[in-house]
Amino acid sequence: MKIGNIIRHYPISCIVIVTIWTLCLIPIPETPLSNVSMIDKWTHIVMYGGFCAILLIEYGQRHKQIRWSKIIVGAVILPIAMGGLIEIAQATCTGGNRSGDIYDFLADTLGALLGVAIGTLPARYLSKRHKD
Fold first, then answer.
1. The model's pTM
2. Closest Cα to residue 58, out of 43, 44, 74?
3. What's the Cα-to-Cα distance from 4 to each of 7, 61, 94, rounded to whole Å?
């Protein structure tokens, strides 16, 4: 699939990808939430869970049938790989402002899996609407 088609068919997911990359590479200022235990891990779970759920919903809107092989690659493996790449980029490209963290990567993975679990039901519903 061409980049233009991906942007046209999955516009919200593309915006979320850019947002995740931006948030993960800019310096984050201290806030009152910084004192919440494991707030950064919860943030990763929510970001990747939301991303994968949105991706599945957009997929269901555009396809008559859910192809699980595509879902596993596009909504599980690629987002998890993106999380790993972001952690590497944080460790090597942010001049010490951010650091790569294996636990952030594990939170990304958990979030992606939860997002797929949550997004599956609406994706199935939306894809079945195409058959009517």
1. 0.89
2. 74
3. 5, 18, 29
